[in-house]
Amino acid sequence: MKFTEQKFTEQGTGKWIVYIDGQEWTDVLKKAKNRVISNLEVPGFRKGKVPPAQVEKYASPSKIYNEAYRMMISPAFDFARSQDVKVEPMNSPTPLPKKVSEKELVIEFIFDLKPEIKLGQYKNIKTIEKPKTEVTDEEIAAAIDQYCEQFTMEKTKDSKESIVNGDAVIFDFEGFLDGVAFKGGEAKGHRLVIGSKQFIPGFEESMIGLKLGNHEIEVVFPNDYTPELANKKAIFKLNITEIKTRELPKKDDELVKDLNLPGVNTYKEFEARVKSDIQKQKETNLKNQFVNDLIVEIAKNSTIELPKSAIENQTADLKKQFEEELKKQNMDIKKYKKKTGLSDEQINEELKFDAIAKLQSYLITSEIRAKEKFKVSENHLNAKYEMFASQFGIDVEQVKTMINPEILNGEIINELLVDFLYSNNG
C-alpha cells in the first residue's frame, strides 16, 4: 500500500489517499472472488455448490470489485492512520472508492480539517489597559436595599391617598399610538414599585400623585427602543386597583440577625461584607473582560486556520442557542427580525462572527493551557471547598461529597489561565 494526503483549506476538508496495487491487489481480488462464489445464490443450486459455468455468469467483476473494496476499507484506514500524517482530521473520515480496476484500488478517506493554530505573542501585551475598580456608597446602599426587600412590610393605602415614590402599585394598563392599541403594550394586575425604573423613563414619574381608579399618562419611548416604537409618543390608559406603602426594615444589628449570614454579626460587619462582595464581583467581571479583549489581540498575533465546516457547525449551534433564548422571551426569529429590523443575512453574519470568535478563543486558550501546563494543587482545591462551605454555611467534608472533582478541576484551571493572562499583560 502507498499513502498520500491532500488539504483543501478553502473547503475546510482533507483527504487521506491509499493505493493498493501489484501482487497485493491481485491476492485481494482472489480472496474477494472466492468469498463472492461461496456466498453466491443461484436458483436451483445450493449455496456454495454452483457449477463453474453459472459462477462466471453470476459472479460479475463488479461484484468482486465491490467485495474487494469492502474487504480493504479497514486495512487501508489502519495503514493511513499509521502514517506520519500532516493533515489532521476533526471528525471520522468517510471512505470513498476513487478507482477500482483489475490493476489497482484507490480509496480516499475524506474528512473535515482540524482547526490549526500557530500561537503568537500572549505575554507582555501592553495595548490593553487594566481597569480600576471602585465601589461607591450608592452601590453599597442599593445592595443592602436588596437584602432589606425580603423583610419589607406593606400596608394598603386608603382610597383617598395618592401614589408617592417607593409605593407598590397594582394596576392594569394598555398603550396606544395615535389612538390604536399596540401589541405587547397591555397587562392586567401588574405590580410595580415606583422608583424601581422597571418601565421606560417618565412612566413611573407620571404615576406619582395618582389615586385609585382610571387615568391616562403620556410618555415618549426612548431612542434606543424597538424600531416600531422608538421616539414615538404613546398614551397609556391605567386602572389603578391598589396602592401600598412599603416600609423597609431598619438598617441595624437586628437586620443582620434576621439575615443570618455566616460570619457576620453586626451591621458594620454586614456593610464591610457587602462592599467586599461588590468589589470581588466587579474585579472578576473586569478581569474577565480584560482577558476577553486580550484574546482578541492574541488572535491578531496568531495564525489560525478555521475550516469552513467548523465555522458552519459552530454557527448552527449558536443559532440553535439563540432561538432557544428567544423562546424563553416568547419570541421567534420572525418576531425578532420585526423588532430589530435585521434581515436573515444580517443575523447569520452576526452569528458567524461570534462563531469565529468563539472558535479562536477556544484554540488560543487551549494552546496556552498546553504550553503553560497549569496544575491544580491541594491548596487550590481546599480553598475552593472552604469558599463553598463558608458561602452555604455547611461543613467542608459535606461540600466535598456534593461537588464533582473533574468539574471543579476544570473551573480552577480556567481561573489559573485568567489569572496568568491578567498578571502577564497590560
TrEMBL record:
UniProt domain PPIase FKBP-type: residue ranges: 166-223
Coiled-coil ranges per UniProt: 308-339
SUPFAM superfamilies: FKBP-like (SSF54534), Triger factor/SurA peptide-binding domain-like (SSF109998), Trigger factor ribosome-binding domain (SSF102735)
Pfam families in the record: FKBP_C, Trigger_C, Trigger_N
InterPro entries with a match to the protein in the record: PPIase_dom_sf, PPIase_FKBP_dom, Trig_fac, Trigger_fac_C, Trigger_fac_C_sf, Trigger_fac_ribosome-bd_bac, Trigger_fac_ribosome-bd_sf, Trigger_fact/SurA_dom_sf
Gene Ontology molecular function terms on file: peptidyl-prolyl cis-trans isomerase activity
EC top class named in words: isomerase
NCBIfam families in the record: tig
Function: Involved in protein export. Acts as a chaperone by maintaining the newly synthesized protein in an open conformation. Functions as a peptidyl-prolyl cis-trans isomerase.
Domain notes: Consists of 3 domains; the N-terminus binds the ribosome, the middle domain has PPIase activity, while the C-terminus has intrinsic chaperone activity on its own.
Protein name listed in UniProt: Trigger factor
The organism of origin for this protein: Mesoplasma corruscae
Lineage of producing organism: Bacteria, Bacillati, Mycoplasmatota, Mollicutes, Entomoplasmatales
